[in-house]
């Protein structure tokens, strides 16, 4: 399968943050029929937002927020459907992991949609506990200890 030429950047300008919301809206609200809160919520004012680019086009996003000085949570991981399976999700996770490590994180945690569990497992995340329902979708808690 084609591997995308992925460039990962922090979204900071109003235009870049609008792209983050546009991708979330397309993936979570329209495709997955999740509530509008997936597009923007109160945590967005404090979280680090990443954008992945295919050439010059923003095609993927995620955010990172700190739960405590050693624990960061990854949320809102989304890649546009036509670019899935080309390594963009992996690049974003690797990039945010390196960033979190530089900033002192010892653990990364996330609440994975159950269908995405194998994706996170490939990247070294382990499940914790049993699946639960959130916003009508089955999720499972996952974590990764950073060396
Ligand atoms: N099931 C099993 N394996 C998967 C997978 C899935 N759903 N999604 C990706 N993988 C595997 C890939 O095959 C690849 O394996 P390889 O390295 O052995 O080739 C590896 O995980 C990395 O895949 P990648 O191409 O980087 O993933 P992606 O760019 O398609 O992103 C998601 C994965 C989950 C972010 C993407 O499918 C997505 O945006 N889904 C919709 C939104 C969503 O559900 N987000 C997760 C919220 S918790």
Question: SSE layout and pairings?
Answer:
Layout (H helix, E strand, L loop, with lengths): L5 E5 L3 H18 L16 E7 L2 E12 L2 E9 L8 H15 L4 E7 L3 H6 L3 E9 L2 E9 L2
This protein binds coenzyme A (COA).
Give an account of the 3D structure.
- This protein has 147 residues and is α+β, with helices and mostly antiparallel strands.
- It is 27% helix and 39% strand.
- A 7-stranded mixed sheet has the order 1-2-3-4-5-7-6, sandwiched between helices.
- The mean pLDDT is 95.
- Bound molecules: coenzyme A.
- The site of coenzyme A has 18 residues, from strand 4, helix 2, strand 5 and helix 3.
- Coenzyme A binds next to strand 4, helix 2, strand 5 and helix 3.
Number of strands: 7
Q: How far apart are the termini?
A: 31 Å
Low-confidence stretches: none
Roughly what fraction of the amino acids lie in strands? Answer: 35-45%
Would you tell me the overall average pLDDT?
Answer: 95
Describe the global form: globular
Trace the largest sheet across and list its strands. 1-2-3-4-5-7-6
Give the distinct bound molecules: coenzyme A
Order of helices and strands, N to C? EHEEEHEHEE
Contiguous helical run count: 3
Biggest pleated-sheet summary: 7 strands, mixed
Helices and strands: which structural class? alpha+beta
How much helix is in the residues?
A: 25-40%
Taking all Cα atoms into account, the compactness measure Rg is 14 Å
